[in-house]
Specification:
The protein has 281 residues and is mainly alpha-helical. It has 5 helices and 4 strands.
């Protein structure tokens, strides 16, 4: 730092130095006040270029994970819709089994068995309607060709980090569950027994699909919990880099305000210095 001769008044180096120091204090004071106003320690890339880059990458990851968390919720909702339909199908199949057991008894006549056959056909048709009408956002949840249905869900913020939920084959029209609407004959005890076996196979199929849906829902729940923990950890890491420490910033402001006052006083005194030359005249 240069110090000028007080007898040379054309350039007041003391006042210039005091002014520069005061401007630096004012600049630092403005930065600290901005941090308190925004709550962020890094408001521009020039504040901390490395920290700014790291914090923004973490912020992008957290935002992506938040949307992935929404995806998991939507996936569980979709599977719940499928589960509800299969539970309804299971109720109908159990009712059908009761009717088939009843028809297998020779105490019934042809008219009674005919009435049971009509009821079984109606219940089979209803199962087809339920499976065919089960959709989520326009997407059918159960395949019509018997080839199985699977869905892919984006469950994290990285490309390729997906989860595939396979519902399996639950054919629309019931034939995919080995229960056809036309082959549930109950004309006698023998044909009723054969239909009873087919209904039992359908019950086993639906039970298997419900278990598969339950397994997928459980895995999605674990992914949801893990993603929540990951988001919290990334937010904590970003906060340490980017967020302002209010106690520290307030302490710095008090110090800078004192320096601002002393700098102003020093500048005033430096401006008064050249007036001492007047005493020489």
């Amino acid at each position: 730092m240069s110090f000028g001769d007080l007898t040379r008044i054309n350039t007041n180096l003391q006042a210039i130095s005091s002014l520069n120091a005061l401007q630096r204090v004012n600049s630092q004071l403005g930065i600290r006040q901005l941090r308190l106003a925004t709550g962020s320690k890094i408001n521009r890339a020039e504040d901390d270029s490395a920290g700014y880059t790291i914090a923004k990458k973490m912020q992008a990851r957290v935002r992506g994970q938040a949307k992935a968390l929404d995806n998991i919720g939507d996936a569980k909702s979709m599977l719940t819709v499928g589960e509800g339909s299969l539970n309804s199908v299971m109720d109908i199949l159990q009712n059908m089994k009761e009717k088939a057991v009843q028809a297998a008894n020779d105490t019934l006549g042809s008219d009674e068995r005919g009435a049971i056959k009509n009821e079984l056909d109606a219940l089979s048709a209803e199962i087809g309607d339920i499976l065919g009408g089960t959709t989520f956002n326009g997407t059918s949840l159960f395949s019509s060709g018997g080839g199985g249905t699977s869905f892919t869900f984006q469950v994290n913020s990285e490309d390729g980090d997906v989860f595939v939920a396979a519902i399996g084959t639950v054919g629309v029209g019931v034939s995919g569950m080995s229960v056809g609407t036309t082959d549930l004959a109950v004309t006698n005890a023998s044909t009723a027994g054969a239909s009873l076996r087919k209904i039992g196979d359908a019950i086993n199929t639906v039970s298997s699909r419900l278990a598969s849906i339950g397994d997928s829902q459980k895995r999605l729940t674990f992914k949801q919990e893990n993603l929540t923990v990951s988001m919290n950890n990334y937010e904590a890491a970003r906060s340490r880099i980017e967020d302002a420490d209010f106690a520290k910033e307030q302490m710095e402001i008090i110090k800078l305000q004192i320096l601002q006052q002393t700098g102003t006083a020093a500048l005033a005194q430096a401006n008064m210095g050249p007036q001492s030359i007047l005493s020489l005249f």
